[in-house]
Each structure stands twice: as structure tokens, then as C-alpha cells.
């Protein structure tokens, strides 16, 4: 019997912005190497989930665990208390995120963007970080762009650099937040192709937010439908996309697929 804790676990998670509650007592877990895609209408809480895992947003209540360890809060003597900043930072190094808007440093070259965190956060020697960065640029099809600045690159190229930057940290967990929504349609295919290759060739755990339903169907082990801050349905892609059990899932997929997304 496998007693390994989930790589990601949400336990009674609540997230509110002012009077608006985005996530309501959310509970789910993701196993090691599992690829889980979150789908649902705008405002259902999908990106908020990723930002909470990345500690870019603060929990209102509840707990998030990474490899069984509390990420931001733990329970001590019956009270919910914050974990230390040092502990949170240690767990954060296991997590990489690729954003919708690339978030590259414009004053740095492509190579400098990729090696910055491995050197300064993980303490990897510069020579080793550079060698790995060049290998990753080869993998994402940009071996000749190491000395370019992000502003000279197309959106698709910037997103490929952002993927390489996230992978340079050797993350256990890769968070993908609508990584193709800011791209021109003709480059969406190439970026998704790179992510498919990452999925096929590594055992990295992925939590994905996307409106590309064919990508969700191909890459995911599990798809979770969210609406109103709650999980409406969670199943394998074949079931979700061909025989969804919940009417809300059927309505959403019908609207999304008929609009050609």
C-alpha cells in the first residue's frame, strides 16, 4: 500500500477578496506525477488556486500541503498559525509557474532570465546553470536566442523562454496558467507542443488552467470542473468530455466547444 502523501493537497481552503468569496471550503489532492487540469467559467477560482499554491495570494482559511508539509499555515494547539518564512521559501523552490503574460525581466537577456533563480535561489554554480539553460533553450527551439532581450522576441518565443525558465528550477510541481491565451493562434500549437513533450518526457506534477480543451484532453490524467469556487465534477478526460455527469459541466463544455475554443 502506497502511503506517500499527495504532492498537493487543499484542505478546507477558503479565499476571499473583501466580501467576495472565491473559493469555499475547497478540498482536493494531486498525486505525484499526476497532471490535473482545472476548467470552468471565468471567475470560478481556477487561477486563484494556482496563485495560492505559488503563495502569490494569501489563504483566508484552511490549509495547503506540499509533499505532506504545510505551505503557509499549520495547526498548533488547536490554532491555525503561519509557518515560518524560511519553511515557506523552502517549499516554494519545489514549485514552478508559467504565467499568461510571460513575466520575463526585460532588462536581462534570455539566458540571464533563465539562470537567475537557479543561481540565487538554489545556489547552483553559474557554469552549471548556464549549461542547463542552453540545453533547455535547445528543447524549446530557441538555441540562438540566449543573448537576445525579451522585448526583441515574439509572444510565442517569450512564452517558450518562460517555460524554459520554470523548468530550470527542476520543479516537482509545474503550474500552468492560461499559457496560450495571450498568444496569436498560429503559435499556440507550437507552445502546446512543447508542453506536451514536457508531460511525456518528465514525471513533473502539473496543475493546469487552460481554455484549450483538446490540450486538456490529451495531457491530463484528471480534469476538474469548477464553478462558484467549488468542484462540480472531477474525472478522467474521456468521461468529462464525452459523458459528463453534471448538467453544469455539460452546459460549460457545450458553450466552450461550440465557440471553437
Automatic annotation (TrEMBL):
Protein name per the record: Amino acid ABC transporter ATP-binding protein, PAAT family
Family designation: Belongs to the ABC transporter superfamily.
Organism classification: Bacteria, Bacillati, Actinomycetota, Actinomycetes, Mycobacteriales
UniProt topology in membrane: Peripheral membrane protein
Domain ABC transporter residues, every copy: 8-253
Organism: Corynebacterium pollutisoli
UniProt-listed InterPro entries: AAA+_ATPase (IPR003593), ABC_ATPase_HisP-typ (IPR030679), ABC_transporter-like_ATP-bd (IPR003439), ABC_transporter-like_CS (IPR017871), Ectoine_EhuA (IPR014343), MetN_ABC_transporter-like (IPR050086), P-loop_NTPase (IPR027417)
Lineage top rank: taxon: Bacteria
GO molecular function, one term: ABC-type amino acid transporter activity
Localization of this protein: Cell membrane
UniProt cross-references to NCBIfam families, sorted A to Z: ectoine_ehuA
Cell cycle among keywords: no
Pfam families in the cross-refs: ABC_tran
GO cellular component, one term: plasma membrane
Keywords from the named record: Amino-acid transport, ATP-binding, Cell membrane, Membrane, Nucleotide-binding, Transport
Amino acid at each position: 500500500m502506497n502511503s506517500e502523501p499527495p504532492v498537493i493537497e487543499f484542505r478546507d481552503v477558503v479565499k476571499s477578496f473583501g466580501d467576495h468569496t472565491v473559493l469555499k471550503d475547497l478540498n482536493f489532492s494531486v498525486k505525484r506525477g499526476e497532471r490535473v487540469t482545472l476548467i470552468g467559467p471565468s471567475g470560478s477560482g481556477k487561477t486563484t488556486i494556482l496563485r495560492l499554491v505559488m503563495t502569490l495570494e494569501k489563504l483566508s482559511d484552511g490549509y495547503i500541503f506540499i509533499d505532506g508539509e504545510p505551505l503557509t499555515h499549520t495547526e498548533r494547539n488547536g490554532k491555525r498559525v503561519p509557518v515560518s518564512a524560511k519553511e515557506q521559501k523552502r517549499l516554494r523552490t519545489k514549485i514552478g509557474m508559467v504565467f499568461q503574460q510571460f513575466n520575463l525581466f526585460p532588462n536581462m537577456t534570455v539566458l540571464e532570465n533563465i539562470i537567475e533563480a537557479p543561481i540565487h535561489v538554489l545556489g547552483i554554480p553559474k557554469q552549471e546553470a548556464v549549461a542547463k539553460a542552453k540545453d533547455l533553450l535547445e528543447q524549446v527551439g530557441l538555441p540562438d536566442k540566449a543573448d537576445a532581450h525579451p522585448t526583441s522576441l515574439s509572444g510565442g518565443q517569450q512564452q517558450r523562454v518562460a517555460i524554459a525558465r520554470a523548468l530550470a528550477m527542476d520543479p516537482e510541481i509545474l503550474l500552468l496558467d492560461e499559457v496560450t491565451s495571450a498568444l496569436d493562434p498560429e503559435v499556440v500549437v507550437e507552445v502546446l507542443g512543447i508542453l506536451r513533450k514536457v508531460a511525456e518526457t518528465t514525471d513533473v506534477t502539473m496543475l493546469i488552467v487552460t481554455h484549450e480543451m483538446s490540450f486538456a484532453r490529451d495531457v491530463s490524467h484528471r480534469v476538474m470542473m469548477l464553478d462558484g469556487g467549488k468542484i462540480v465534477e472531477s474525472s478522467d478526460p474521456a468521461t468529462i468530455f464525452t459523458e459528463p455527469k453534471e448538467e453544469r459541466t455539460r452546459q460549460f463544455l457545450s458553450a466552450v466547444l461550440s465557440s471553437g475554443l
